[in-house]
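Table S2 (text version). Query chain:
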Amino acid sequence: MRIQSKNIYQLFIIPATVIALGIPLRAQQKTPITEQVDVIRQYKPVLGDAVKIKKSPSYFDENIQPSNLKYSYKNLRLLKDTARNTIIADSLKAIDSLNSPFLYLKAGAGNLNTALGEIYLNSRPSKNGSYGAWFKHLSQRGKLENQQFFHEQAEIFGKKILKTNFISGSFLAEERQVHYYGYDHALSSFTKSATKQNLINIGAIAEFGSLVDSTNPLSYGLKIHGNNFTDHYSNSENLYEASGLVGYIIGPFSFNFSSQVAYNKLNLQNGGTFNTSVFRAEPYITLQNKLFRLKAGINIVNEFGDKKKVLVFPDASLDLLLSYGFNLFGGIKGDVLQNTYSNMTEKNQWINGYINVNNIGSPLSGAANNLLLANTRQNFDFFAGIKGAFTPVFNYRAQVETGVYNNLYFFINQPNARQYFSTVYAGNGTTKEEFYAEVNYLAGSKFRININLDYLDFRLKGIAEAWHTPKLKSGIWLQFNPSSHWMINGSLYYTGEQKAAGYTPNGVDFGPTQYTLVLPAFTDISLGIEYRINKKISLFINGYNLLNTKYQNYLNYPVLGLNALGGISITL
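Corresponding C-alpha cell output:
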C-alpha cells in the first residue's frame, strides 16, 4: 500500500508522545571551532569525510545556517573501519559549554515561488542526554511546465548517556515530490498528475555501545536500522540492517571484529522483485605508535539476495608520520557496495518508476546491462596520498585512487521516453581512477575557506560512456564573519562536461539508434548574508545560481535559474 504524504505527520504522534514523557536526550549545537582536537583513529581515505563537491548548493546547507545551530544531533555511529575508539560519546566538557536553543524557527520566501520553513525543538543541555525534533519544508516552481519541487523532512531523536554505555535512537520521515518535466515542451503537454513522482522514506535507528574509557581495553557497539521506501508507482523497498563490533587493546595492538547484515528487497508494482542483501564480517588488527599506524584485515562478504556468492577481499592500510605537517598514507581494500532503489533516487529523482522487471533499462545498452538494481563489486581499490597540517589553522590532503569494479552503474535516458532514466551497468574489469585534493584554512571564528578538486576517469567494459558523470569537479567555499552581527557565506562550484545518450527517431524496419551528446560544463555561484539583530533574531538573504545558467546535471532537465531567498530566524 502506498503511503500518503499526510500520513508522515501522523507517524510522529506516538513517538513524539513517548519521547515527551521524559527520555533524557540532547541535540548538538553548531559552534565555531575554538580548539584543535587530535583523535587517533584508523584512517580510511574516502571522499565522504571531506567537503563534498555538490552539483548544486542545498537550501538546507548547514553552511548557510546560523553559526549557533546544527540540525542533526551527534549520533554515536558505528564506524566499522576504526579501531578501539570506534564508538565515542560527546565530550562532557563540550556538553557543559553548550548553549543550544530550546526553540529555533526559520521562514523564508523568494522568487520561483520558493517557500522555506524550519522548526527545531530540543531539550536543555544535560550530561545525561537529551531529546528533540525538527521539521523542514522547501518548495519551488520553475517556468517550464511541471518544473516544480517539494521536499519535507522530519525527525525525532534522542540519546541517553549511562555510566559506561550510551543508547540513542531516531525516527525519520522524508517526502520528495518531483515531476518528469524532461519531455519536449514544444511538442507535448502533460498534466501534473501524469508526470508526478512521489518518493517517501520512513526509517528508524537504534544504537547501543560503550563509552570511551582509557582504563577499559574493551569497546563494543550495536546498531539496528529499519527503513521503508515507496514511490508514486507503488514500488516498495524494505531495508533492515544490523551491525556490531567489538575491540580489545593489548599494548600497541588492537584486535577487532566488525560485522553487518543488510537485508534489502525491492517489490515492484507488477509483482517482480530485486534483492541486494549482503552479510559482512571483518576481523582486523591495528598496530600504532607515534610514527605510524598499520591496519591488516580481511573483508568477508556473502551476497545472499538475487546473487549468491561468498567473496574475500583485503583490507590493509598504512599511515606514516614523516615530519610535522606531512603524512604519507596508502592501502588496498575491496568490498561489495550495496545498491538500493532509495539511494539511486537520491542521485537521480527521474528514474522511471513504472518498472517492468522483464524490460528494464535501455535496449541499446546490451542485454547484460538492463537490470534496475544490482550490487557493485569493488574487486580491489588501491589508494595513496599525503595529508597534514602545517599550522593548527591550515591543513591539506591529496590522494590518488585506482580500482577495478563489476556492475558500476550509471544513469541513461530511455530511447522512447526521454524524460525517464534507467540504470546501466559497466561489466567486470571496469577501472576507475581518481585524484582528489583539498586545502582548508580556518582563522578562528572570523574566516574559513575550503578549496577542493576531484578528477575521475574510467575504462569501461560493456557500455560506451560513463553517462552523466563529469570527469572534473572543483569548488571553493568560504565563510566570513566581519563582526558579531554579520555573517557571509559564499560558494563557487565548477562541473566539467558530461556525456549523455541521444536517440534518432524510429525507422520503418529498425528502432532508435543511440548517439552521444555532450552536456556543457557549468559554474554555479551562491552567496548568503545574515544580519544578527540580537542573539535571538536574525535576518538573511541567500542567492543561488547567481549566473542564472540553465545548466543540466541530467539531459533534458535544466535547473532553476537565479533564485533569491530571504527571511527571518528566531532563536529562543
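Notes on Table S2: The two ends are 41 Å apart (CA to CA). Residues 1-98, 356-371 have pLDDT under 50 and may be disordered.
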